[in-house]
Amino acid sequence: MNIYDVVLSKTAEKNLSKLPPKIIAIIIPVLELLGENPRPIGCKKLRGFSDLWRVRVGNYRVIYSIEDKILLVDIREIGHRKDIYK
């Protein structure tokens, strides 16, 4: 049961749609789990940003923010680790 609502930004939707189906099948369950626990083991707060977190999914990264007051996880970007931080 999700405690937090998980919302994808337009950018994240676009990023996700461009990924291979195998990778999408791995990332979707991770996004669903963020609704239950937005700070899972292995997640990290991004340096230089006050509200951004990242979680690793193999060679891919999911960048998101957490709004605890309104129980919302806002997925900002999804991409390969070599491209995501640019």
How does this structure look, described?
The chain is α+β, with helices and mostly antiparallel strands. It has helices at residues 10-17, 21-36, 81-84; strands at 5-8, 44-45, 52-57, 60-67, 72-80. It has a five-stranded mixed sheet with strand order 1-5-4-3-2. Strand 4 (60-67) and strand 5 form a beta hairpin. The model has no long low-confidence stretch (mean pLDDT 95).
Features:
globular; alpha+beta; 3 helices; 86 residues; single chain; 33% helix
Write the layout of secondary structure elements.
Blueprint: E1 5-8, H1 10-17, H2 21-36, E2 44-45, E3 52-57, E4 60-67, E5 72-80, H3 81-84
Parallel strand pairs: 1-5
Antiparallel strand pairs: 2-3, 3-4, 4-5
